[in-house]
Amino acid sequence: MQSGQEVADLDSERLYALEVGVKTKHVEVAAFADRVRNFIFRDANGFNVSNGKTRSEGVELALNGGNDRHNLELSLTWARHRYDFSSSPDRREVITDGNDVDTAPRLLANLRYRHQWTESLSHEFELAFMDDYYTNAENTARYEGHTVVNWRGRWQATERFSLYARLINLLDREYADRADFAFGNDRYFPAMPRQLYVGVDYRF
């Protein structure tokens, strides 16, 4: 409990979920809905909130296709996560039934293109997208989201020996791994700038 809290009225967290989907060789689709009860979390003013309720609905999609040299994969999730209760106690964050759950973007997407240059040389580009989202339960502060490009390559020199490289955040984009709102201020956890990793893989 935090300063000023005298009672912790707790019960076991409960999750009620339903998911249906279809899967083929190149396509996967799933729709889901869930309800969470007795959810415990900390609000933007640093107070623990007991017996919270949330509801979520969404769709997940995965596509893949190509041939021996070129391959394209797409993963996409659209979901709406909302508070299912209202709360406005003294000194705490105001939560309204129907507000979006903070730090929960509605759209996430990942696109990968793989190219087998030769039998021993391959590489891929990855595009990772995160939609904007509210950073507080009151839905008054927002993070704008981001798009990041990554690259990976591999040279299989011999059956046992290979070289690989990864270039993360290829465009050197400034973005946050996570953003939230605490004690009246925006708070960001910055992602790393452009990074290059080179490695050797040898199998004995």
Report on the structure:
- This protein has 204 residues and is mostly beta strands.
- It has one domain.
- Helices cover 0% and strands 60% of the residues.
- It has no helices and 13 strands.
- The chain has a nine-stranded antiparallel beta sheet with strand order 1-2-3-4-5-6-9-10-13, with no helix packed on it. A two-stranded antiparallel ribbon has the order 7-8. It has a two-stranded antiparallel sheet with strand order 11-12.
- The protein is elongated, with a radius of gyration of 22 Å.
- The model has no long low-confidence stretch (mean pLDDT 92).
Secondary structure topology:
Blueprint: E1 14-23, E2 27-42, E3 48-66, E4 70-83, E5 107-116, E6 121-130, E7 133-134, E8 142-143, E9 146-155, E10 161-168, E11 176-182, E12 185-190, E13 195-202
Antiparallel strand pairs: 1-2, 2-3, 3-4, 4-5, 5-6, 6-9, 7-8, 9-10, 10-13, 11-12
Radius of gyration: 22 Å
The total of beta strands comes to: 13
> What count of domains describes the coordinates?
1
Overall, the morphology is elongated
The SS-based structural class is: mainly beta
Strand order of the largest sheet: 1-2-3-4-5-6-9-10-13
Give a brief rundown of this model.
The protein is mostly beta strands. It has strands at residues 14-23, 27-42, 48-66, 70-83, 107-116, 121-130, 133-134, 142-143, 146-155, 161-168, 176-182, 185-190, 195-202.
Keywords for this entry:
single chain, 204 residues, mainly beta, 9-stranded antiparallel beta sheet, two-stranded antiparallel ribbon, 0% helix
